[in-house]
């Protein structure tokens, strides 16, 4: 049950959210060459956490442009495909954060009802026309209501003048657009 809001609820707060991805496990029958996790909080811009650096992705696409009639599987070496473990696991061990100003009361109210959206996309470009083309693989939602309530209680207890940190670890199930589980 939500607690009482802080008394200075009309002041802007500087908030940072950090998403760390330990690993992504995808069913072996799902094809994903260049995985990337994208997260979006409320109406703020989406933030991507790619498995490969941008220069590597550009190199892969340049090679594909040079050999358009060869499949990705034939084009890329076996070592490339060994980055995905035998059971379908990509060890990301990467993360990103975003910093934004907002009214804490507004953020609190929204996060009690709206989850954090995580998308898994494949940055592979099969048509060779636009390097920004991606393919949706799956998604999951992460409820942040408990986390925002913990932060609210910390503000009530410690005041708004000191930096506060709260964290939670989540494991979520990835689903495709048809609602079928495709990984974790």
UniProtKB/TrEMBL annotation:
Pfam families xref list: MAP10_N (PF14924)
GO MF terms, alphabetically ordered: microtubule binding
InterPro entries (UniProt xref): MAP10
Domain of life: Eukaryota
Gene Ontology annotations for the cellular component aspect, listed alphabetically: centrosome; cytoplasmic microtubule; midbody; mitotic spindle midzone; mitotic spindle pole
GO biological process terms held by the UniProt record: cytoplasmic microtubule organization; mitotic spindle midzone assembly; positive regulation of cytokinesis
Protein name (database record): Uncharacterized protein
UniProt lineage: Eukaryota, Metazoa, Spiralia, Gnathifera, Rotifera
């Amino acid at each position: 049950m939500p607690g009482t809001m802080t008394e200075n609820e009309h002041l802007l707060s500087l908030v940072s959210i950090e998403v760390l991805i330990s690993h992504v496990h995808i069913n072996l029958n799902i094809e994903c060459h260049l995985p990337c996790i994208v997260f979006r909080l409320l109406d703020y811009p989406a933030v991507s956490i790619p498995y490969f650096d941008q220069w590597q992705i550009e190199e892969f696409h340049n090679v594909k442009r040079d050999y358009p009639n060869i499949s990705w599987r034939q084009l890329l070496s076996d070592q490339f495909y060994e980055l995905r473990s035998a059971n379908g696991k990509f060890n990301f061990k990467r993360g990103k954060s975003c910093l934004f100003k907002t009214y804490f009361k507004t953020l609190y109210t929204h996060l009690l009802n709206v989850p954090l959206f995580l998308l898994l996309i494949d940055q592979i470009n099969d048509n060779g026309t636009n390097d920004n083309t991606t393919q949706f693989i799956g998604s999951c939602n992460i409820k942040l209501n408990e986390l925002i309530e913990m932060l609210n209680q910390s503000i009530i207890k410690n005041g708004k003048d000191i930096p506060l940190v709260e964290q939670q670890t989540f494991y979520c199930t990835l689903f495709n657009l048809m609602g079928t589980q495709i990984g974790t």
